[in-house]
Amino acid sequence: METTKKQKVKGKTLRINEIEDFLLGTNEIRINVITNTVEARPKGRKEPFAPINQADLSYNIMKAGYTRFDSELKAILGSSIIPKYDPFKEYFESLSKWDNSQPDYIQQLSTFVKTDDQKWFEAMFKKMLVRVVAQALGSNQFNKHCFTFVGKQHDGKTSFFDFLVPDKLKPYYKKGYDFHGGRQSKFSLVQNFLINLDELAQFDKKDLNNEFKSTLSESGVKYAPLFSGIEVLFPRRASFVASTNNSEFLTDETGSVRWIIFNVLNINHDNGGKDGYCQIDINNVWAQAYALLKGGFKGELSHDDINQTELINRMFMRVTSEMNLITKHFKSAEKSDPKANFYQCVDISEYFRNKGYGKVHEVQVGKALGSLKWKKEQKYLQQFGTQRKGYYLIEIENQLT
């Protein structure tokens, strides 16, 4: 049976039609799919939509003389007659179209940030912006990396990341992340455009290793949409950036390719003046990134990019006492080297105890060797009657000078 606003049953107008007419007769209402909230504005007005909670809606309906309308209100707001609004999609689709005949705005903006490898930075900056757009729009290019600046205090790292967020998306920009906030923190992943981990020193190293790696792998969060009792998977929309003054902040011996790190020498901000990066229209930058994504540009890191990232990130690894001890007394060697001996972690631990260094735990030795990226091999050990993993090393103090 067709349902319209004019439908009547036994000569009476349906109650749901009356409430619908009241709600939509004076207001434009939409559901923001990013924040999972109801937004409204007076009908026929051009003022911005503003969030309105269900209590306010209920109050207005009660003031109009209606009672016991919860089920009708829920049905109306959860139905397809209420338009769904995606602020990210609307923003990017509203931008001026960019093509190759126009300036390379991304490259122009990247020149205002000077790093110790400018060519690498500019290439990764472009890829990062495309990944951010893809993530925000739910595209198939998943952004599992954190774009990170390392530099002096008060050099403008945070302000540059602030600048990247256009005015229309400022409500979806978050600074900080609670790795122990549970479900509530995970909502940040689907309700924000960019999350800035401002000053990494404030975070526990365990959070930056285990918890953050897990967070970057999150593809979505399950929860019930507004006015629905069924949980569905909402795609992650947020990308991460970070900054720190500490040049040795990585501690994960298993690898740190999720961090794309740049040693920032200078950021030309001109204190917000005309000679700094503010002269670039950030909307043009995002228009280019959006066009690149639509044109098939690949923002993901290539195999060579990943290898280069791993190599660069070694410079930002925190050097532990175990790493210092190992590199002081040993160097990595090939299995075929006649001067090399096979060591397990327990052997190295015992070696240091015999040298008078006290207890050096084999677990920490293993982590240190992992951080050093020394090659792990296997050897059949007769005393155990099986293959064992270890390292071929040469004791430095026994080498001829």
Briefly summarize what is shown.
Residues 95-313 form the Virulence-associated protein E-like domain. This protein is of the alpha/beta class.
Mean pLDDT: 89
> Which CATH architecture of the largest domain?
3-Layer(aba) Sandwich
Q: Order of strands across the widest beta sheet?
A: 7-14-8-13-10-9
Distance between the termini: 95 Å
Find the CATH topology of the largest domain: Rossmann fold
What count of helical segments does DSSP give? 14
- As a percent range, the share of helical residues equals 25-40%
- What's the shape? elongated
Percentage of β-strand residues: 15-25%
Tell me the radius of gyration: 29 Å
How many β-strand stretches?
18
Low-confidence stretches: 1-6
Q: How is the main sheet built? A: 6 strands, mixed
SS-based class: alpha/beta
Tally the structural domains: 3
CATH class group of the largest domain = Alpha Beta
Domain Virulence-associated protein E-like: 95-313
Protein name: Virulence-associated protein E-like domain-containing protein
Pfam families: VapE-like_dom (PF05272)
